[in-house]
Specification:
about 475 residues, 16 helices, alpha/beta, eleven-stranded mixed beta sheet, disordered C terminus, 11 strands, Amidase signature (AS) enzymes
Length: about 475
């Protein structure tokens, strides 16, 4: 099987071939490493690549499977993780030069669970510094979109999106506060879920956004995403905020009919002023696809959605700044990226009275989202209202009300309300622009209704062909030198 084919198969297909001993875990890992070596010097998906360890683990997996000890659908598959999650004996930088020598003595729970399922850690992925959006100069290289390297791969889990789209791994783990899994999934043309808050343990990750941070998988298909979430979900006594609710069988929900289901198109998140015309056209076509599948689609309204962005910035940025003030801001000011330190310094200046009022405002936004969900099975809207922008054009220099509206509010308005409601929300491909850049659909449902989200997303995915397209990395000048 040619290298490109095996690396770009879905994780579920790779897993079945490995189970049936038609594909070697060693061959798959080596194929991914070859692609990383050839193209990652430009794309910058990885901060650290665990080549030797990954190949040794692949040899172990191959021996286990040959001996009849197959652990499940992820056994022998390579995965990467956002460099925000601790890995035993492996550099963990949080995308910052101030942690350039940080080597933890333990794995995060999610990594323990993936390794327990037989998956193989292939590397630590590039990210916005400390998991905050707005990094201007990336200490470990500028991440680039594999569909067009002049364009933004989004953040803050930038490398996690690039790696999966580029066939560098079978799946990745990212972290999502306001959209940091969903936005890279959207920009790179893949699938990414923000699970319900508490569905996945955060122990062993640096979770500065204490009331908002979640860990979720990025994959090439919906089925892959369900398999990865199945492996990492569930209660963990080491995380006091993890839920004790049982984890359902997500794969079992994938092939259910949508006939009779009701989907709500969120007006304010789908067609606001400033939405890109190609995004709007793709969303209207998506509605037609759902209706052809038997779903009832009707428009709903979230009148408070526009407040989600400033409310989350006032609260989550303050949470993060409070945790970083003594440890990093005061002692490593000049070592931090200007985007990081400016945003966090502003977070330190938010008065307690404003913070508490904003927390009450968050409760109102959440209540409205949950109320609307009482009348529909799920909510749908574009993941982002604009296609991936040019890297230089999306730098968050805000010097006017207009810039605030276009660079901050409009770019976040589709993802932040669901973060604030702490409900599951998934991004998946819904088309491409005339210039070949990915467009993305978002599906959100009630708390802990990940199975519903997967069911709807899988039905749409199977009715379209967007997930079968992959960036042609041969078009990239692999000899280009970009820092």
């Amino acid at each position: 099987m040619p290298t490109d084919e095996e690396s770009l198969l879905s994780a579920s297909e790779q897993g079945r071939l490995i189970r049936d001993r038609k594909l070697s875990p060693v061959e798959l890992v080596q194929s991914c490493l070859d692609r990383i070596e050839r193209w990652d010097p430009l794309l910058r998906a990885y901060i650290t690549v665990c080549a030797d360890a990954a190949l040794e683990e692949a040899r172990v997996a191959e021996r286990e499977i040959a001996a009849g000890r197959w652990r499940g659908p992820l056994h022998g598959l390579p995965f990467g993780v956002k460099d925000q999650l601790n890995t035993k004996g492996v550099l963990t930088t949080l995308g910052s030069r101030v942690l350039a020598d940080n080597v933890p003595d333990h794995d995060a729970t999610v990594i323990e669970r993936l390794k327990g399922a037989g998956a193989i850690l292939i590397g630590k992925e590039n990210m916005h510094e400390f998991g905050k959006g707005g990094t201007v100069e990336f200490p470990y290289g500028q991440p680039r979109n594999p569909w067009n390297i002049a364009h933004n791969p989004a953040g803050s889990s930038s490398g996690s999106g690039i790696a999966v789209a580029s066939g560098f791994s079978s799946g990745s783990l990212g972290e999502d506060t306001g959209g940091s899994v969903r936005s890279p999934a959207a920009a790179n043309g893949i699938v990414g879920i923000r699970p319900t808050f508490g569905r996945v343990s955060r122990w062993g990750g640096t979770m500065y956004g204490w009331t908002a941070d979640t860990i979720g998988p990025l994959t090439r298909t919906v089925e892959d995403n369900a398999l990865f979430l199945q492996a990492i979900a569930g209660h963990d006594p080491r995380d006091p905020l993890s839920s004790t609710r049982p984890v359902p069988d997500y794969a079992a929900a994938l092939n259910k009919s949508l006939r009779g289901m009701t989907l709500g198109v969120v007006r304010e998140l789908s067609w606001p002023d400033g939405a890109n015309v190609e995004v709007v056209a793709a969303m209207r076509e998506t509605i037609r696809v759902f209706e052809s599948l038997g779903a009832v689609v009707r428009e709903v309204s979230l009148t408070r959605a526009k407040y989600a962005v400033p409310l989350q910035l006032l609260t989550s940025d303050s949470d993060i700044a409070a945790m970083m003030l003594r440890k990093w801001l005061r002692t490593h000011w000049n070592d931090l990226d200007v985007g990081t330190r400016t945003r966090l310094a502003a977070g330190c200046l938010i008065p307690a009275t404003v913070y508490h009022r904003a927390m009450r405002g968050r409760a109102l936004v959440r209540r409205e989202v949950l109320d609307v969900l009482q009348g529909v099975d799920a909510l749908i809207c574009p993941t982002n209202l604009q296609p991936p922008g040019l890297i230089e054009a999306v730098k968050e220099t805000v010097d006017s009300e207009e810039a605030m509206e276009k660079k901050v509010i409009l770019r976040r308005i589709s993802t932040y309300p669901f973060s604030m409601a702490n409900i599951p929300a998934l991004a998946l491909p819904m088309g491409f622009t005339t210039k070949g850049l990915p467009l993305s659909l978002q599906i959100a449902a009630k708390p802990f209704a990940e199975a519903t989200v997967f069911s709807i997303a899988h039905a749409y995915e199977q009715a379209t062909a967007w997930h079968t397209r992959h960036p042609d990395l041969r078009l990239i000048d692999s000899g280009a030198k970009t820092s």
